[in-house]
């Protein structure tokens, strides 16, 4: 307010008394003294007598320290029209003027300027007017923001300090960066919560999602049929593998012997000579022959000195059946768990083991349900105490590769003593083909 008063004092008022030089006491011919230059009214600053009288007593009007607009209610609702906004502004300005005599103007801007009401805008008045401006149309907001800031809209309703001007850009950048980080953090948190919630629903729901289409489904419901008096003949033709159900043992599992967590002792690079079978040299598939059968084809005599392990499991690798086969005692590690496998067919390159493949939904003893969706097979090594390896194996898996595609387990037949050919296609180690004799 003080700055506004000083700016008003800089304008010379025509009603200020001019200092005229006294007339000479003797003689009437003396020239009158010239009027001081500072008292001459500059062109364009002349005002009417009425306005001069108002300005003379402008700051003497009102004898209270409370702003006349302090008690005005805060408007609510939507935006006003331009005419309604002008009417509300005129009411605000007349209330702000108090008992002062005003020159009436319909345009609130002219009313403000004609009556010097801008001088009455202090912090309280600016705050009250800003509340009022929340309902102004955009054009009215733009016009009055520019007017009240002296031409700089960025300083409407109060000028910024020099330090605020200097730091504003840096502050805005920091705010924008903080908002972006917060938004990204919230999105990542929501995604993580959604994933955890979805997994929890699958694991804990009383009605799990039906995954029958992803399970290992037999092509028929026929059981073992005897031909004649207990000959044990199984109906069906020769074994023809389903390419979608063929897997290769291409994963090495190697854990060094030692202390500490086994995860810290896992090794990915293993010398080929240490492995029980070369990587990719063993392939497997699944058949139906009086029940579930896993056929494995590898190099000559690959299974003779090793430990063969087959696991039927759910999507999350929860075992439903585990079988172990060792041609000689002690071939399997003593701590390995599984039931002895029954050999259905054997040859120098082929080994077919009977496994239990549940059909449809299986109720789990720990709660919930599962489906037989994958078969994991591999050749394990019973390492000696002096060996540097605690665990050493080459493993592979058989799964239904595509969701929504129902793949049936193929069936083959035959009688004990029959020689059948198992062909699983070709791989990096050559063709996986061999003969075996049904037991």
Keywords:
alpha+beta, 439 residues, disordered N terminus, 7 helices, 6-stranded mixed β-sheet, 7-stranded antiparallel β-sheet
Could you explain the architecture of this structure?
The chain has about 450 residues and is α+β, with helices and mostly antiparallel strands. The protein has helices at about 1-10, 50-55, 80-95, 110-115, 125-135, 140-150, 160-205, and strands at about 215-220, 245-250, 250-255, 285-290, 290-295, 305-315, 320-325, 340, 340-345, 350-355, 360-365, 370, 375-380, 390-400, 410, 420-425, 430-439. The chain is built from seven helices and 17 strands. A seven-stranded antiparallel beta sheet has the order 2-4-5-10-9-17-16, with no helix packed on it. A hairpin with an 8-residue loop joins strand 13 and strand 14 (about 390-400). Mean pLDDT is about 80; it is low at about 1-30, about 35-45 and about 220-230.
Integer-rounded radius of gyration: 49 Å
Number of helices: 7
Oligomer: single chain
* Biggest sheet strand line-up: 2-4-5-10-9-17-16
Would you list the SSEs in sequence order as H and E? HHHHHHHEEEEEEEEEEEEEEEEE
Report the sheet-strand fraction: 15-25%
Helix-strand category: alpha+beta
Q: Biggest sheet, open or closed, and with what strands and sense?
A: 7 strands, antiparallel
Inertia-based shape:
rod-shaped
As a percent range, the share of helical residues equals: 10-25%
How many beta strands in the DSSP annotation?
17
* Overall average pLDDT: 78
Present the secondary structure layout.
Blueprint: H1 2-9, H2 49-56, H3 82-97, H4 108-114, H5 123-133, H6 138-148, H7 162-204, E1 217-218, E2 247-248, E3 251-256, E4 283-288, E5 292-297, E6 307-313, E7 319-326, E8 339-340, E9 342-346, E10 350-355, E11 362-363, E12 369-370, E13 374-380, E14 389-399, E15 408-409, E16 419-427, E17 430-438
Parallel strand pairs: 1-15, 7-8
Antiparallel strand pairs: 2-4, 3-14, 4-5, 5-10, 6-7, 6-13, 9-10, 9-17, 11-12, 13-14, 16-17
């Amino acid at each position: 307010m003080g700055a506004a008063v000083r700016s008003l004092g800089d304008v010379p008022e025509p009603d200020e008394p001019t200092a005229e030089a006294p007339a000479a006491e003797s003689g009437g011919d003396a020239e009158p003294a010239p009027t001081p230059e500072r008292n001459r009214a500059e062109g364009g600053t002349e005002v009417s007598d009425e306005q001069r009288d108002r300005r003379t007593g402008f700051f003497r009007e009102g004898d209270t320290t409370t702003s006349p607009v302090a008690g005005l209610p805060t408007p609510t609702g939507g935006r006003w029209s331009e005419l309604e906004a002008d009417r509300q502004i005129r009411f605000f300005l007349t209330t702000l003027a108090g008992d002062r005599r005003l020159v009436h103007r319909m345009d609130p801007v002219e009313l403000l300027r004609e009556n010097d009401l801008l001088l009455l805008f202090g912090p309280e008045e600016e705050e009250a007017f800003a509340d009022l401006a929340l309902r102004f149309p955009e054009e009215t907001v733009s016009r009055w923001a520019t007017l009240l800031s002296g031409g700089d809209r960025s300083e409407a309703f109060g000028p910024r300090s020099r330090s605020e001007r200097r730091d504003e850009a840096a502050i805005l950048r920091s705010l924008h960066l903080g908002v972006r980080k917060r938004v990204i953090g919230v999105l990542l948190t929501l995604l993580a919560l959604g994933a955890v919630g979805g997994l929890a629903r699958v694991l804990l729901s009383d009605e799990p999602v039906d995954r029958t289409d992803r399970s290992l489904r037999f092509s028929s419901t026929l059981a073992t049929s005897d031909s004649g008096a207990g000959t044990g003949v199984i109906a069906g033709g020769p074994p023809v593998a389903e390419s979608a159900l063929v897997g290769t043992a291409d994963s090495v599992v190697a854990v060094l012997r030692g202390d500490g967590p086994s995860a810290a002792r896992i090794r990915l690079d293993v010398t080929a000579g240490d492995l029980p079978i070369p990587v990719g040299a063993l392939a497997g598939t699944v058949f139906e022959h009086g029940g579930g059968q896993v056929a494995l084809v590898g190099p000559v005599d690959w299974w003779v000195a090793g430990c063969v392990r087959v696991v039927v499991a759910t999507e999350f690798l929860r075992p439903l059946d585990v079988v172990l086969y060792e041609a000689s005692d002690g071939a399997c590690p003593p701590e390995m768990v599984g039931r002895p496998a029954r050999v259905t067919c054997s040859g120098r390159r082929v080994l077919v083991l009977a496994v239990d493949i549940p059909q449809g939904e299986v109720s789990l003893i720990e709660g919930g349900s599962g489906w037989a969706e994958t078969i994991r097979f591999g050749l394990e090594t019973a390492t000696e105490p002096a060996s540097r390896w605690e665990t050493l194996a080459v493993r592979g898996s058989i799964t239904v590769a595509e969701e929504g595609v129902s793949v049936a387990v193929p069936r083959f037949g035959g009688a004990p003593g029959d020689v059948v050919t198992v062909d699983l296609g070709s791989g990096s180690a050559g063709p996986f083909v061999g003969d075996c004799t049904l037991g």
